[in-house]
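Hypothesis: this fold can be encoded by more than one sequence.
Test: take the structure tokens below, design a sequence, compare later.
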């Protein structure tokens, strides 16, 4: 501590936020408070790490470790609570980014994993998304095309893959690679907290080998193959579910990725969607469950 920065005693709340007409604290006093808070936050992160050390032992004892340590249901719930309780000067974007890095890195130190991402749609946006959600300590591996991401995750024990959760002609029906029972599955949809001005708002599905005790089934994602695909069929399913369609012109059909809420508003199960397709003249050739994730959660954004 320099002579220009004396060590004052801790400030009372009334001096940190003085009322109208009250004497302002000195810059030195306020910086001392900032240093105290930084040391407390750092100590709390170290303590969080100690809890994780014990959590690893508990998971080992329960036999629930191995594979990915990523628990998307828990993370979705934590991120919703964080967004809902946030207030004050620090932007929500920053708070969300800090906690994504904290949680993803603590997941990594439990069981190392890499994040494989499909850069084919837009390298900058996908890299921003991967780094925002998983930080810089978790290794990042770039792929050109979603099929490469699916293959890399399939060959790994606990790696995660990021693929676009939006229609893109360039991608083909990558999700058909998730149909075999032993293939990776969709386990999350990011960002967990959506808003119009999200700084890393590219909608992505996170794929991984699913962990038995970790599935979130609020929204099911189905790979559906239809014959007789048409604009009429597309219009019939649009109000019922989020659908990504890749038409197969040779066969007059399409491969669809259909997200179906399991409960609540919009629920009705896959059957309702298949019935709407049939009523619109399409015939359903197959339907395979390729994953599930937490309900989408939208935050109002800046107050
Ligand atoms: C700590 C756990 O493992 C992971 C890390 C988390 C964290 O650091 O908060 C939360 C969920 C998991 O993805 C857990 O399973 O609770």
């Amino acid at each position: 501590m320099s002579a220009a920065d004396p060590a004052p005693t801790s400030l009372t709340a009334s001096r940190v936020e003085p009322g109208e007409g009250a004497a302002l604290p000195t810059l030195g006093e306020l910086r001392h408070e900032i240093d105290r808070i930084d040391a407390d936050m750092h100590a709390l992160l170290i303590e969080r790490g100690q809890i994780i050390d014990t959590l690893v032992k508990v998971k080992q004892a329960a036999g629930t470790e191995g594979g990915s340590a990523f628990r998307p249901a828990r993370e979705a719930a934590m991120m919703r609570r964080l967004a809902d309780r946030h207030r004050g000067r620090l932007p929500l974007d920053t708070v969300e980014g800090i906690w994504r890095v904290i949680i993803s890195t603590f997941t990594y130190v439990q069981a190392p994993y890499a994040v494989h991402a499909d850069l084919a749609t837009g390298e900058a946006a996908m890299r921003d998304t991967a780094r925002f959600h998983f930080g810089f300590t978790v290794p990042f591996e770039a792929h050109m095309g979603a099929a490469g991401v699916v293959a890399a995750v399939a060959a790994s024990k606990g790696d995660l893959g990021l693929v676009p959760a939006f229609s893109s002609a360039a991608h083909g029906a990558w999700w058909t690679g998730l149909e075999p029972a032993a293939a990776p599955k969709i386990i999350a949809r990011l960002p967990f907290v959506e808003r119009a001005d999200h700084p890393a708002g590219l909608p992505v599905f996170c794929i991984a080998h699913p962990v038995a005790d970790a599935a979130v089934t609020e929204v099911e994602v189905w790979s559906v193959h239809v014959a007789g695909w048409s604009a009429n069929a597309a219009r019939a399913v649009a109000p019922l579910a989020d659908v990504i369609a890749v038409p197969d012109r040779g066969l007059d059909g399409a491969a669809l990725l259909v997200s179906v809420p399991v409960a609540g508003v919009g629920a009705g199960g896959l059957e309702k969607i298949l019935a709407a397709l049939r009523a619109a003249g399409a015939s359903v050739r197959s339907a395979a469950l390729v994953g599930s994730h937490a309900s989408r959660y939208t935050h109002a954004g800046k107050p």
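The two ends are 38 Å apart (CA to CA). Strands lie at 115-118, 140-143, 160-164, 185-190, 204-208, 219-227, 242-248, 253-261, 283-293.
Hypothesis status: open.
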